[in-house]
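Example 3.2
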Amino acid sequence: SAVAQTSGCGKTAPQKTGTSTEVSFSVEGTSRKYRIYVPSSYNQNSPTPVVFSFHGWGETASFNENYMGLTNVARDNNFIVVYPEGMADYQRENNNGWQSFNGGGTTETLGNECTSSTKGYCYLSCQRRPQGCGRCDWTSCYDDVEFVEEVLNSIETSYCVDKKHIHATGYSNGGIMTYSIGTRLGNRFASIVPGGGTPHSGHNNAPAVSRDGAVSVLDLHGSTDRTCPANSTTSSDGWNYTPVDDVLKVWGTAHGCTSLSSVKHFATPEDGQTKLWCGSLGNCPGGVDMVRCAYQAGHDWLGPRQNGGPGARLTWWFFKNHPKEDLGANVTQAKVAEV
């Protein structure tokens, strides 16, 4: 099938290729920023994949570029990486070290997101809401889904983008944000690799697959992670998250997958790296995978601070093999078959 390309095809790249550039960007009057890496091999007439990579709480776009290590993989495989930066409006408008992303229930306190002994952080953007801050809120309240959508719009009009290959990954708070992007912008994102982060308890929302098309998932979690544990609810510091299996069962059901309690080995080129093992849940429609991976680490990315390391390589391998799939009628068929 023909590659779906964007209006940026044929235009000269606005940023220098072969390097990362910081871009300032206004969203509804608020100044935002992101880093963008465009490989030297970029061709303005050739539709190119785009990967968004979200940093953890209190970190920056440049920290994340170094930490998750996607840039060298992009250099070697010809894709663009966008590193958005979260807002840091804790106690003052810009308080470096408090950068955060708003997703997965981090600012929508229902009361179950944290234990009674835990208290959140009241960012100015949350304070300004009619309801103010909730007890378990801990990030900025700026609309980061809108931010991502606006950045993507801008990139699609400036660069030649392959619309079937737009993907998201991130670690910790960035992993939570990645799930939010898959849920809220599933019409544009093809597949996601969230690391060390799941939605809060009470916020395990299903993607709208029949409307938006499929979004395959590969979840990465360190086997001894206590900050956002893979297999239990309450973290070591009193926050409540949705266990990975529960997230993937909701996502799998939305995609028409069956037998989601069965897990089979999902072979990857990085198997055995820091004892990496991946399993796929259930039987999903063709081209769709719901995968969870564990590796020997605590709350840390797979191969952190390695430019082109195993986590970055695995992420691109999964993205390359999971372009946007419009399941259309397949979802209904699978649901009918399940009954």
